[in-house]
Amino acid sequence: MHNVIGILFGNNGSDILQGLAFQRSTAAVPFGGRYRLLDFALSSMVNSGIRTIGLVTPRHYRSILDHLGAGKEWLLDRKSGGLFILPGAIQGLSGQSGRFALKDLQLNIEYLQKDFSENIIISGCNHVFNMNYQEAFDLHETKQADITLIYKESDDSAAMVGKERLIIGDNQKILDIQGQDTPETTGQIHDYFADMLIIRRKLLLEIIEGYRSIETVNLMDAIQENIRSLKVYGVQFNGYYGTINSVKDYFDRSMELLNPKIRKEVLTGQDRIHTKIVDNPPTKHGAHAKVSNSLISSGCTIEGEVYDSILSRGVIVERGATIRNCIIMQKCKIAADTGLNYVILDKFVKVRAGNVLKGKKNTPLVVLKGSVV
Amino acid sequence: MSSSSLQAQRERGKSMQKQECIAMLLAGGQGSRLGGLTHNIAKPAVSFCGKYRIIDFSLSNCANSNINTVGVLTQYKPFLLNSYIGLGSAWNLDNPFGGVHILPPYVGENEGSWYKGTANAIYQNLDFINFYDPEFVLILSGDHIYKMNYLSMLNFHKEKGSEITISTIDVPWAEVSRFGIVTIDEDNRIIKFTEKSRYPESNLASMGIYIFNWPILKQALIRDAQDHLSENDFGKNIIPKQIELGRKLYAYKFQGYWRDVGTIESYYNANMESLGGKDSIDLFDPVQRVFSNEDILPPQYVGPTAKIQNSLISNGCVVLGQVSHSILAPGAYVGEGSIVEDSILLPHAKVNRQSRINKSIVGEGAKIMSHCSIGREPGSNPQQAGITVLEDHYLLEKGSVIQAGSNLNSAC
């Protein structure tokens, strides 16, 4: 895709994920065994042919930078273009988070000024999806739109919490952007803004300039205020769109990857999700291993039993351990004669022999990174 | 590396490009004894132990030994091998002062030809070695499975004041005739070298890994090229000649796991050894890691009715049936009701429903339709120990029954 650069907001989201997002932003939360959440948005851009991408960093950006490095695995270690780290503004409170805050863009205005591209694709990175922007971009160009918003039709207001509702007229023209659901609108079908949009670069620069004096305004507010004078169109995204607003959501979206249809669409289709490569050996299933309906990453050693679970790289499951309905992150070690059910183990957790950990389907138990249980 | 950056190196002066030791990796062999596995691909690029390819081990050893200038001599079906190696970045070998260089045969003003032997291949690339002007040249073979720190061997070479050092390993007496055998004195100095002899004097075998002082190598290669009777081979010609000339050759004794995977049988056995047992290549060792150039694939999916035991399963695999004592390379698929035992599925091999596979090697992208039986009927090919081999991209029709030890090639 020529003439387009990308901006990813890695600082959307707050402390909804409890301990999982304690020392990392939502974007950097591990997902699906070998990925992190931002891989989905980032790969969607890369697979659409975008080779210049700026990432607005969150407050805790160590884990994001550790994951991305120079962007090699996403084909972004380049002489021209490539991956740009755009330090995000420090918000007053750590839990507080602007979505598409103009302040973040103001701080990094050079990234937008020095490029020659006509258009910019902006996306959040807290969602599970695999989208090729070509179709949306084609519409953007055909309609000569100023802004094209990508939306998802849904009647699940719980999943779409915090997302703007779009009022769409003939010809996909956006007539209005409304705030979050109210009790009256809950449960009906709406077109929710999916945290992805295409905007003309010059227009974005004008908007940033125009709102310079107002600290807290975000891009969606600015578009909404000027909706009558701008040509704003909408494109529906029909694919799988997993939203994560709570630990339960995180658990459910993860488990949805065990569904072959969703896995095929998100992970094994034409466009692959890129992620950091660690050069692990293949996973060893031992003589007493029993694994069923699970996603297992490389470098694991499994001697115990694993059912309906997702294992990240380098996990060790000893003989006699039984894991059901769990998400086990990188390099956890589960010793013999243990039982885990509905548990999320963050990275480097050690479960000592003989322990039983149980969460509930609706409230999975989260064990913090590096804990010894 | 582009020519402009080579130019830049030259301008930076000799000090930048000079290397203490560079490696020359012989990867041009056809590997015809691997049958269907090398019909479309050079032997060093054959998949090994799930996610690896044979050449990964030598390249990773170089990376782990801080040798970051490697010339890879290719000749036979080089395309996949070349694209797999790329710039060498997968092994951390993309280095502006060195790096990996693919060296195919080329034609000069007056001369140029295919590589006639191992020594001839190096001889034809004297210019390359001259460019880096090293003190030592490490000669490697691209088809061995082992982990070795070449710096220990280099230190030994320096300590002994050796001119040529050969890495050696004790092999079982029964197999001695397959190898080049060295006879040494009490100081490890080599007094005799016999290639594939029927009456060997020792069981100390050459691993085909040599360190030469560069001036000695240069002189030896030039002389060898002038000898029309020579087969231009290190083991057959160069080494015996140098012993004859009274050079200081020493044997470095390597301790550890080392396998030559030149035949179907040895390839199969080396793969299977990695499934466990005392003697195997340790893939899980965090210090001496084996790097590889891997594709982007999702984690493996193990289905509700699957059963996997004693097996290595790679990324991107989907297992719905039973797998025991087997190795599945990235993207392999085992359908419902199928049983795979003692077998190796190479990348993206697909076994559909209700098939049974015993002791087989299923080539890359090969497809086995449902209700097949492979390697379960006794066969008539004792040479490869009853191992059945399906060539890359072979399509096996529904309901086929294949005898053990068969070789299925698309061309036939």
Structure in a nutshell:
The complex is a heterodimer of chains A (373) and B (412). Chain A has 2 domains: 4-266, Spore Coat Polysaccharide Biosynthesis Protein SpsA, Chain A, CATH 3.90.550; 284-367, Hexapeptide repeat proteins (UDP N-Acetylglucosamine Acyltransferase, domain 1).
Write the layout of secondary structure elements.
The complex is a heterodimer of chains A (373) and B (412).
Chain A: E1 4-9, E2 30-31, E3 35-36, H1 38-47, E4 52-57, H2 62-68, E5 82-87, H3 102-107, H4 109-113, E6 119-124, H5 134-142, E7 147-154, E8 165-168, E9 174-178, E10 190-200, H6 201-210, H7 219-225, E11 232-236, H8 247-256, H9 260-266, E12 283-285, E13 290-292, E14 294-296, E15 301-302, E16 305-307, E17 310-311, E18 316-317, E19 322-324, E20 327-328, E21 333-334, E22 339-341, E23 343-345, E24 350-351, E25 356-358, E26 365-367
Parallel strand pairs in A: 1-4, 1-6, 4-5, 7-11, 12-15, 13-16, 14-17, 15-18, 16-19, 17-20, 18-21, 19-22, 20-23, 21-24, 22-25, 23-26
Antiparallel strand pairs in A: 2-3, 6-10, 7-10, 8-9, 8-10
Chain B: H1 3-12, H2 14-17, E1 21-26, E2 47-48, E3 52-53, H3 55-64, E4 69-73, H4 78-85, E5 99-103, H5 118-123, H6 126-132, E6 136-141, E7 144-146, H7 150-159, E8 164-170, E9 180-184, E10 190-195, E11 204-213, H8 214-226, H9 234-244, E12 249-253, E13 258-260, H10 264-273, E14 300-302, E15 307-309, E16 311-313, E17 318-319, E18 322-324, E19 327-328, E20 333-334, E21 339-341, E22 344-345, E23 350-351, E24 356-358, E25 360-362, E26 367-368, E27 373-377, E28 388-390, E29 395-396, E30 401-403, E31 407-408
Parallel strand pairs in B: 1-4, 1-6, 4-5, 8-12, 14-17, 15-18, 16-19, 17-20, 18-21, 19-22, 20-23, 21-24, 22-25, 23-26, 24-27, 25-28, 26-29, 27-30, 28-31
Antiparallel strand pairs in B: 2-3, 6-11, 7-13, 8-11, 9-10
Structure notes:
The complex is a heterodimer of chains A (373) and B (412). Chain A is built from nine helices and 26 strands. Chain A is α/β, with parallel strands linked by helices and 373 residues long. Chain A has two domains: 263 residues, Spore Coat Polysaccharide Biosynthesis Protein SpsA, Chain A (Alpha-Beta Complex); 84 residues, Hexapeptide repeat proteins (UDP N-Acetylglucosamine Acyltransferase, domain 1), CATH 2.160.10.10. With 412 residues, chain B is α/β, with parallel strands linked by helices. Chain B has ten helices and 31 strands. In chain B, strands 5-4-1-6-11-8-12 form a seven-stranded mixed beta sheet, sandwiched between helices. Chain B has a six-stranded parallel beta sheet with strand order 14-17-20-23-26-29, with no helix packed on it. A six-stranded parallel beta sheet of chain B has the order 15-18-21-24-27-30, with no helix packed on it. The two termini of chain B are 40 Å apart. Chains A and B meet through strand 12, strand 13, strand 14 and strand 17 of A and strand 14, strand 15, strand 16 and strand 19 of B.
